Amino acid sequence: MTPLTRRQMLRVTGMLTAGCFWRTTTGTAAESKPVDVGSRLELFVDRRLIDQMDGLELRLQQPQRMPLAASPIKGSYLTIIKDGDIFRAYYRGDDPSYKGDRYSGHPGEITCYAESRDGQEWTFPRLGIFEVNGTRNNNVILAGLPPFSHNFSPFLDTCPGANLQARFKALAGHPGRNRKVSAEGLHAFISADGIHWKKAGTEPTIPYDKSWHHAFDSQNVSFWSEAEQCYVCYFRTYETPQGRLRTISRTTSQDFKRWTAPVATNPNLPGEHLYTSQTHPYFRAPHLYIALPTRYAAGRVGTKTTDAMLGSTDILFMTWRAGATAFDRLFTEAFIRPGLDPERWGSRANYAGLNVVPTGPAEMSIYHSTSGYRYALRTDGFISVHAGALQGELRTRPLTFTGGELILNCSTSVAGSLRVEIQDANGTPCSNFHLADSQEIVGDKIEHAVQWKGNPDIAALAGKPVRLRFVMKETDLYSFRFRPRK
User: Fold this and answer.
1) How buried is residue 32: exposed, middle or buried, by Cβ count under 10 Å (0-12/13-18/19+)?
2) Domain of residue 431, CATH code
3) Is 8 helix (H, G, I), strand (E, B) or coil?
4) What is the DSSP string of 301-343?
5) Distance CA 195, CA 92 (A)
6) Per the omega criterion (within 30 degrees of 0), is the bond before 72 cis?
7) Do 331 and 61 touch, CB atoms closer than 8 A?
8) pLDDT confidence band for 27 (50 / 70 / 90)
9) Which of 96, 155, 366, 409 sits at 20 to 30 Å (Cα–Cα) from 56?
């Protein structure tokens, strides 16, 4: 019997995925219908826009752990909000004067606040709002309201016309000790300044349902979706078709008061627990939601098998495209591993803070809530289309766009290059936009304007179905967009 090639083995085992060479062509009428990208930024975090890819691979990037800041931010269920020039941080703390039992949602849990001007060094203002441990000289914004400090998760409401007195909103709630329904569900909180908060009513805005088996025992995240024109909430539930696993459900609302019937998303692999989804719109492309869930290996701490209530963790990468019905997981391996630090292999030791935020002209950051480390990535740099030393190419599905200029976020080696051809929907090169007319791109830029001989105006093709053909070697391509010509 002839031995199988590696590619054939991957096909048989179902492992021919984003990390391997692959090729596909559009088939159904729905797949062939042009995708209107308008002037949106598009990232290669799913296969939505890819028709064919030969000699290339989709590559999951590795966030780089930065040196620990002198005054880092860390705390359970961390949220980072970039509000203009200010980074606002929210996290769970504990009242040291509380002497009772310490269970999830206990009365000694508090919510704390910090600020930064650069997203690196943090200050912890003395707010004087709550007396904790005998003093108001602290940064506490919520205390004495169990169980809401357990998982208080705020966001900056960008809904047009939103009430300025509720410029910030949050959800909080917990199923209670011993899985009893003491919190009744998720309650809404509002704030004008992100520091002084009050409950928006006495009843839960998303009531608890006993069939969910210990729902809300995590950071339950919500936001205004510009793309869907509604509020969206992704929250923790505890059931999947694969068994009783920690998983994620979703619901939406027009007013942050009345919510649709929740739908289980079940992005879990068999036997896989997903603990905090950390789903949020990407700041440069709000129609793409980034998710950084914690994968929880129940019963394992490091290399040892132990109590089923304990478990080692790492951080994954998923996305949700507005209008979709499921998470997309191009890669199922870890995005951020525990690493060399033995403490990161302890039980529940790896959680990403909510929100990826810009921390420089070409940099964005993820915050590791339990260690205080900041992880940096190139802007748009979650996943790249990667070309090695041999030339490869990618062709998109038919697209329609607005604008007069094509902008790429790409990086080449000194021997690498990237060229672009624009084709009609049938794959025929458009006049003046042949591959031979494309000026070779060499270099590393977040925004590189593609040029063709004679400087033709792309606006002539706007609104017409076209395909983009990228031909590249020793290059990483992260994103593209059309914009008005400068």
Assistant:
1) middle
2) 2.60.120.260
3) helix
4) ETTEE--TT-EEEEE--EEEETT-SS-B-S--S-SB---S-GG
5) 14
6) no
7) no
8) very low
9) 366
DSSP helix/strand/coil, 286: strand
Count Cβ neighbours within 10 Å for each residue of 161-190 and write b for 16 or more, e otherwise. eeeeebbbbbbbbbbbeeeeeebbbbbbbb
- For residue 481, what is the enclosing H or E element? strand 466-483
- Domain of residue 469, residue span: 6-59+384-483
pTM, 2 dp: 0.93
Q: Over the stretch 200-247, which tens digit does the pLDDT of each residue have?
A: 999 999 998 877 777 898 999 999 999 999 999 999 998 888 888 999
Q: Provide the 3-class DSSP secondary structure of residue 93.
A: strand
* Residue 183: per-residue pLDDT: 53
351 and 395 housed in the same domain: no
Residues 409 and 319 in one domain: no
Note the pLDDT of residue 242.
87
Residue that the structure tokens 């539930």 belong to: 237
d(CA 362, CA 381): 10
Cβ(98)–Cβ(156) below 8 Å:
no
